[in-house]
Amino acid sequence: MIDYRAADGLFHLQAANFSYVVQVLENKQLIHRYFGKKIRRFSPDHQIVYLDRSFSPSPISGNRTFSLDVLPLEYSSNGLGDFRTAAIEVRSEKGTALDLVYQTHRIFKGKPHLDGLPASHGTEEDVETLEIDLYDELTDVTVILSYSIFPEKNYLARSARIQAGKLPVQLERAYSFTLDLPHKDFEIHSLTGRYAYEKEWTRVPLTAGRYSIDSLRGASSHSRTPFLALADPHITEDSGEVYSAHLVYSGNFTAFAEQTALETTRWGMGLNDQAFSWRLVAGESFQTPEALLSYTDQGLTDMTHTSHVFLRDHICRGDFSHKERPILINNWEATYFDFTEEKIVELAQTAKDAGIELFVLDDGWFGKRNNDESSLGDWTVNYDKLPNGLEGLAKAVTDLGMEFGLWFEPEMISEDSDLYRAHPDWAIRTTGRPHIYSREQLVLDLSQTAVQDYIIESVSEILKSAKISYVKWDMNRNITNIPEGLANDQKYEFYHRYMLGLYRVLEELVTAFPDVLFESCSGGGGRNDVGLLYYMPQAWASDNTDAIGRLSIQDGTSLIYPTSSVGAHVSAVPNHQVGRITPLATRGHVAMLGGAFGYELDLTSLPQEELDEIAQQVETFKEIRQTVQFGTYYRLKRTDNTRAYNYVSQDGQQAVLTFVKTLAQPEAPLMQVKLKGLDPEALYTCPQLGASFYGDELMHVGLTMPHIQQDFVSVQYIFTKI
Ligand code: DGJ
Fold first, then answer.
1. Protein residue whose Cα sits closest to atom 3 of ligand 1
2. What strands lie across the sheet with 18-24, from one edge to the other?
């Protein structure tokens, strides 16, 4: 609900659990008044305290207490008194500052699309929008701030559109949002890491100065996620305040929190302005990506649940957002580039015998791709490996009663490819500089329409050529050596133009192939962000398939992303990334915990007893799939040596508990795990324990985990409500 009180210039945006209030002051500045637990109303009698602050300049001669430096502002520039991190910087013949004052506003049901960008969506029942126009007279620039509130889902989507008036201007910064919170006591939560170690949940206290996470890689990256939460330093899973924000974007970004001199906090997120600028000729406008803000006073579990539900319902699109995901077998770690049609069909047959539903043919099926040094861009079948083509292979697999899926890396080009020989200028490069290589490959210039069209056509042709119901969209390097641009002052438009090109390609393909399940990948989770979730409801979480390594990766990924999106596979031992040998049961339990479950190993080389165990795992996952992918997820224990989680199905009928202990210890203490989210009065049976317990027993007494003196052990208990 959006309540506007004209007499006081107050806008009160109300969700089920929080309120967000902004106010237009008499002098037309737009200030932030409140973001926090839901309140009935925000009285105009809440005072704004004006004080004479030394070194905080005032635009009004004779008034020493009015300064932009100390007001809580919604979207400000530097240069007129505010010395904190600005939301916007616009260069024109009139300097770089903007005096943004309220001009008009609109309130309406629903939410408009953001042109060319991924964004949250909803019906007129789901969401209501407030647009506030701020205007700077000298430069004739208008900033349209957009606030879309999803009351039932406890999310607020914010973005900004910057419109040039009579003068051409150069945008040097245009964040999606900033806002000022009235105190400084926060613990910052972010997801950091690196390749094969993605989404490490990182917690640091906010101290004097600025904390920021950024990417300049042309992708959100393995090491940074466009997400930042500001939590009460004493937050727990079940209590405490936390503000959180996602940026719906997959390229260079920044997310920051700044503890100011007067002990308030400025928080913001947007395109990384370190490599951004955008020229607007008179009358043109620029749309920032959207940020999704939420608040809860119910702790981290509630933050997670709110995010899972919102991203699933209002970011993911199409049938797959709520459809169970097929259990897959991927041949990458089974064969790498070295496969034949015969081998693939044998693998598919073995997988089918174990009950697996989808076969995914990974890298190496096209051009002359026998290693990672050639053929990216040549999306034509390699008949030496697949004599019956993709059509023949897809038929052989689907005749077995499985679905067939295919790997692509469409944004890339190998120097050794027909595409490069025909279009060397399609590879990103600064004219005159030598290429910079990564995995021996170059990135296609997706800012060019011809390149976008090529990708759309070549991928479409393959998808039409055979019965393909799944696509893994990979991206295995970051962008360097960017083109010099049309004019010097346009050099930094490139990164954002690349993303707009990519989003156009994805929009066309997912629209043209609505029945295909798309999974994004970038050497694992190198671009696992909300922007891509809009097009692809699933993401390969990491190239690290070791069950123990996966624990923290999946834990961090599921902190914010729906479990239906978290690709997780059982792989071979010794593990290919770390050499660790873990039991098949543990590998199964951890991959099932991930969400979008599958296998990635050579099943044909396994002994029958392991194949039988895999068939049993597959059967179990089919039983719990709905619960794991669409149920409610709880973190129960997270220590260096132990992890426990449980899921509860949406209908409350089933709960799944997974416990993993990494290393055996001498005189190991007994481990008690208490479940969450159960019906206290219901009786649950558990076949693995051969016992029944009431919900309150499981939640308050808990269960003692078995004492197994072995490394890398796990248990999985399935509870059914009687
Ligand atoms: C990186 C991906 O993360 C892997 O799963 C695999 O698809 C390889 N690329 C193939 O080159």
1. 523
2. 2-5, 10-14, 18-24, 30-37
Strands laid side by side in the 654-661 sheet: 632-638, 642-648, 654-661, 713-721, 683-686, 691-694
Q: Helix 449-465 vs helix 389-399: angle between axes, to the nearest 10 degrees?
A: 50
pLDDT at 491: 60
Q: 678 alpha carbon to ligand 1 midpoint, in Å?
A: 39
Q: How remote is the CA of residue 384 from the centroid of ligand 1, in Å?
A: 21
82 Cα–ligand 1 center, Å: 47
Pocket of ligand 1 (CB under 6 A): 332, 362-363, 407, 474, 476, 521, 523-524, 540, 543
DSSP H helix total and E strand total for the chain: 12, 38
User: Is residue 663 scored above 70 in pLDDT?
Assistant: yes
Three-state SS at 130: strand
Given a cut of 60, whether residue 242 has pLDDT beyond it is: yes
460 Cα–ligand 1 center, Å: 21
% of the chain with per-residue pLDDT over 90: 98
Q: Tell me the CA–centroid distance for residue 280 and ligand 1, in Å.
A: 39
Query: Is pLDDT at 573 greater than 70 in this prediction?
Result: yes
> Residues 420-425: what's their mean pLDDT?
98
Nearest atom within ligand 1 for CA of residue 540 = 3
Sign of CA dihedral 217, 222, 226, 228: negative
Is pLDDT at 492 greater than 90 in this prediction? no
By most ligand atoms within 8 Å of CB, the mutation choice from 195, 222, 330, 332 for ligand 1 is 332
Nearest CA residue ID for atom 2, ligand 1: 523
Which of the listed residues 375, 440, 540, 542 should we mutate to test ligand 1's pocket, taking the one with most ligand atoms within 8 A of CB? 540
Residues 6+ apart with CB under 8 A from 277: 170, 171, 172, 489, 490, 491, 492, 493
Does this model's pTM top 0.85? Answer: yes
Pair 402, 442: CB distance under 8 Å: no
Q: What are phi and psi of 118, to 5 degrees?
A: -70, 145
Q: Locate the ligand 1 atom nearest the alpha carbon of residue 372 and give its number.
A: 11
Atom of ligand 1 nearest to the CA of 522: 3
Both structure tokens of 541: 């979480």
* Rounded-to-integer distance, Cα 81 and Cα 142, Å: 20
Q: What angle do CA 358, 198, 319 make, to 5 degrees?
A: 35
Q: Which residues are catalytic?
A: 474, 543
Determine the pLDDT at residue 489: 53
Question: In which residue are the tokens 């659990």 written?
Answer: 17
| Structure tokens belonging to residue 352 | 């089918």
Average pLDDT, the chain: 97
